[in-house]
Design brief:
Distance between the termini of chain A: 35 Å
Strand order of the largest sheet of chain A: 15-14-13-12-6-11-10-7-16
Largest interface: A-D, 48 and 49 residues
Structural class of chain A: alpha/beta
Number of helices of chain A: 10
Shape of chain A: globular
Helix content of chain A: 25-40%
Strand content of chain A: 15-25%
Oligomer: homotetramer
Number of strands of chain A: 16
Order of helices and strands of chain A: HEHEHEHEHEHEHEEEEEEEEEHHEH
């Protein structure tokens, strides 16, 4: 695991939890925690029970006993690390967004394609059983032909103008701003649930355009706080999309509405164990949106707890992601969302930024095609759930 | 009152209820219900206790005892009726949207301007005390500088593809589709709360593009079922905006979110006696969106019922609108939203349709400027509320 | 109309609105507003357009042109006024609770029974289309055998300890405290939806036991701020029940949950145009409570507005009550909820207070039996709704 | 870990996760999974990576390398296992309810008291940061003097009458029905937030009084499906309390409302990362309940994830419980909720069942006093949160 911030910890924990939660073919052990700060690496390695600590990521990934490299560093470092790991024959689990710019993402997708090792991008919200159930409903045709959608991801973690400048404000390290950090998740849901995006038009703004630096000065913020956009999908569907990192009071407001000819669904990550659905057949005096509480009927929820309403947490989403990666390594399923998918998300972000800069509609670069999403029924049919243990 | 459909009834009831609800200077009586169908006109006149019925709107508005003309007919008829009424020296209360196209709306606004009689457009949701309180918060600066917004109005009243073709599907009678019927309301809130819109880009689609006719055939639907857009306001703010009349399960989903540098608010017309607000000062362990239940602290709610939580209804919104009209006629306040405001809404719709047809950003025609909204505090300060009667 | 406080106004408005809203056989006119304060009576009579004002309620009800007497005075005055009106051959619409104590209520029910004029008690929340739909679901057996319920009515209108002493704090004028003002409503729903209550056990407390008087002193509060109870129904069902007038933040929290062998429902008056329902058949991956928005499918909602989600308000509930009264006077339906029903509610309150005073379970006095509720389908089947007018 | 059902698994996972989540003084290893079914024990031991499997719980707990015994078997077995473990000098983590009857619970509390090893009962919902924050608000006086409360725990896991008879239906194995399985949790919150209960009155019913057995017959259900009660606390507060295991559509509806002289709070376990709070100072036009999303400001949430809105899950609650146990073993804090607390809960259940059987108010056996709850501020002040790792 490269990087020992929160995401590094989350990865480490997920690699440990996966074996006791899922019927894995491969039981991962935790080899090395790597961080530029050697002391920090040692501390965290001790905390999570890793075998080794390192301040040299190249050395860390070189070990013969290392099969998987998890990358949780700033976006601008992903390309070098991921391609090195793939070249060294490792499976790679890279945090999102895949890269700080489209060229890097395309290079990474190409590196992954030609080496064919398991590769996955940390779009954790795609691991949510509620989202997987939404996909199931769409795939089964329960919502009919999908017509349009709304996509939002708002938070307020940078709403305070006194928050210091950081790598998140830099174009080279972060790439996009709200779009890369938050919007990428909303786009991942769009691509998963609806399909590829062909054209976009967008605005992007940075109302807090300078932030304090450690030396007492103020540095320019190089990426957007707020972005708004229209999307057109290759299937002809349309969507509004927006994202803000300065939306006071919003903490994890990843919100998706999808409307079809036979039904509608609504989802809010702030209540991520719920899914609201309304079917055409629900009209009449008893019609209305149903508040579905995810449970064992929505795999892989049941791997964690056998009762609906009990709820899984953020860490559990990470564990599901790692399970998918291990399944792919064992040849039991696709590595999803993979680098090609991550590149497709970055291609939409790239188009959004081009549109916001130059005005008007722009086409999304489709050099790298995202893979077809796995079928929820096929992917999770074989999973024994926790009810079996009661 | 011209037109005896639901809106005709709603106007008639509001004119009757206003005197017992508000301290009006003028107590309106109900003179004539007019409808092309003479029998229908008689029936409804009897039902609402109007003095006369008529199948000739020109005759109906000519009476010397007629001071106010309410127009609730299909949009394409508004111009002729409203200009005739204004020329005859009457105050006019015209349902929204002001007209079926921008040219008509501009002519109506000009007719209203030059005659200066009270004139008002039926944007009933602007009469909601929760919306008025939202405006108060914005005007007082409690949300800081407004940065961006989200605007939605979804319903499903045309989601059933077997619903027959009607005037609502015709360009000459309805003008726009979802945008005119629903979107106009969302835009009215945008203009009221944030200000004029300068530029837009949009898509518009009609997935149910033919509908059954009475003769067993099928006729083309001439306007949009779904529209999505980006807005830029003259103040620099941005917004996403979308509207659908085929959104299964949505009944009155007029939803507005406004984000400022010091606070955020969220509103949903399906729960229109509530307003959610979060202030910057609410961060910390007890922070979060407050669910405000409107009550006497949010005038003119208290004119109806003296307890928060008791709730006012749709008909009450109409009564507030009529009170505003009577106040304007008595010289006690502005007629708001007036024809110039209605024209400004139609100008945005016109721009949205031009953009959707031709692509890319278009400027909103600003020939007719919307008036400055009345100050909530000034407008409602003097109102005795129902608490005084307890 | 006796009494010119908010409820007097609300009655006056409802008598005026009913004719334009419903197909009434009798069109009521507003004769007299009566109040001890002659000036107040004149002011309000002028405001609502009543023909006369009076400071003598006996004179006011004596007129030959007076067919209906509406009583909106403090509870302790109901008996004398209502029996006088019944003796004078008038229909009576009396605000709830029926009386300040059970003996009075029984005398009133007896007076009503022997004279058989239309008589009705103002349990306005029984007029709510959402509540009527709940009754429909129960009557049709859609929830199976009803097993248990939860009943709550909380407000905070007396949470402020500096609020002055008033008639509401006096045993002779108000009778019970929270139970009479709020709890009576919750009990009215219990009797309507489930049936008669046979036994109760209760606690009652008055944490704010003294309140300031106008002369600068403090007077004891003679009735309860908070009551909690268990109910057993004659049908064997059980319920918890509680009510508080000092529950900070609650504005109109009349909350009912009903659980049956085949389904559940939940209702909250603070969102009274909604009803949440879950059916046994809703289990499975798409199961969950449905949020029903009341609309034309839930008569008599459609008499007010033809679209679900538009919402009716408190005043509209009063209009429905008056319509029921007029229907009863015209021999078209039962007067419901009548004085016998109101007495049954007071009998439960009486039992609750006896239990709270003396401890342990007590039987509810069933001298006066509540009438069988009208069937929602039968009562509202013939009503043309507003859709007919579109 | 004795028992390999879901709870056995949940304990095993929590013992593994605790070291990577919290700064533990002791890092637990997983020695033995014990189950009567030796094959099952081996399978689960393999799954969770335990060193050994056993079909003999006495042997399992005897090992010198065993310091902690976790008991997740049916309630009727808790006493024998827990006392044996305590006698063997082990710390004990026993699932709730502590025992199947009060006598057993008292014996266990006595055994724990005299041996003074760390002992804890699995009231997992007390580990919720939202509940801990509720306690903090109460302890700080932010809600003023607590007056009354409402306590509910409903589920529908036994709503299906075809669900087979099991140990949960038996008095010897389960003890109480809904009260033991669900109600115990609600009572644990009552004792934690408000204090000891002195008197109760209750009803209890079993509408599904026979259930199918494996041999094709039907056996009687020996405990209640539904219970309703009134509680009086030693501090004079009152509460309604009810619990059902046959409430269709409810999945984890542990709901608590607490009302004080200066504020109110509401909590629903189905949305357990949220807490609704209203303060007296929140009245005025911007007043209303705040929806607090738990986050790093509500320790120990931040140990799991550094962002509010991201949400923790059921498994994380178990991890917090284990951390508390380890802290107690290290002498760093109280073992809370301990066996005395668990016994106090069982004493309330015992009183409820006595009242339901014999009618009227009964006193709660207070032989064993529950400990004072730890101060949230004191307990969690020293915890580094995940933000430190970003």
């Amino acid at each position: 695991v490269i990087g020992t911030g929160f995401m590094g910890l989350a990865h480490a924990r997920a690699f440990q939890a996966v074996s006791t939660t899922f019927p894995v073919a491969l039981r991962p052990g935790l080899r090395t925690m790597a961080d530029l700060d050697a002391g920090r690496a040692r501390t965290v390695a001790g905390q999570v029970g890793a075998e080794r600590a390192s301040d040299d990521w190249r050395a860390a990934i070189a070990g013969d006993d290392v099969d998987i490299v998890a990358i949780t560093t700033p976006n601008g470092l992903h390309r070098e690390m991921a391609t090195a790991a793939l070249e060294a024959g490792k499976a790679v689990f890279c945090e999102k967004p895949l890269a700080a710019n489209l060229a890097d993402a395309q290079a990474m997708a190409e590196a992954a394609r030609t080496r064919a090792h398991a590769n996955q991008v940390g779009f954790n919200y795609l691991a949510n059983p509620a989202v997987i159930h939404a996909k199931r409903l769409i795939d089964r045709g329960d919502l009919g032909a999908i017509r349009n959608a709304r996509l939002v991801f708002d938070e307020d973690y940078m709403a305070d103008p006194t928050l210091p400048h950081s790598w998140r404000c830099r174009g080279d390290m972060a790439g996009a701003g709200a779009l890369g950090d938050l919007g990428a998740h909303a786009l991942s849901l769009a691509l998963y649930l609806i399909g590829p995006v062909s054209e976009v038009t967008a605005t992007a703004r940075t109302p807090i355009d300078r932030r304090p630096t450690r030396d007492g000065g103020r540095a320019p913020v190089e990426n957007e706080d707020i972005a708004d956009a229209l999307l057109v999908f290759t299937g002809g569907q349309t969507a509004t999309f927006s994202s803000s990192r300065v939306a006071l009071g919003r903490k994890c407001a990843l919100r998706v509405e999808v409307f079809g000819s036979d039904g509608s669904l609504a989802f809010d990550q702030e209540r991520f164990n719920e899914l609201e659905v309304c079917f055409r057949g629900d009209d009449g005096p008893n019609g209305g949106f149903r508040r579905i509480l995810t449970g064992p009927a929505h795999p892989p929820y049941g791997a964690f707890v056998p009762a609906a309403g009990a709820q899984i947490g953020f860490g559990d989403l990470k564990t599901i992601e790692v399970y998918r990666l291990l399944q792919a390594m064992a040849g039991r399923g696709p590595s999803y969302p993979d680098f090609a998918f991550g590149c497709a998300v970055d291609a939409v972000i790239d188009a959004l930024l081009r549109s916001a800069a130059g005005g008007d509609w722009v086409k999304v670069d489709d050099t790298v095609k995202p893979p077809a999403p796995p079928s929820p029924d096929a992917e999770w049919a074989a999973l024994p759930d926790a009810r079996a243990h009661q």
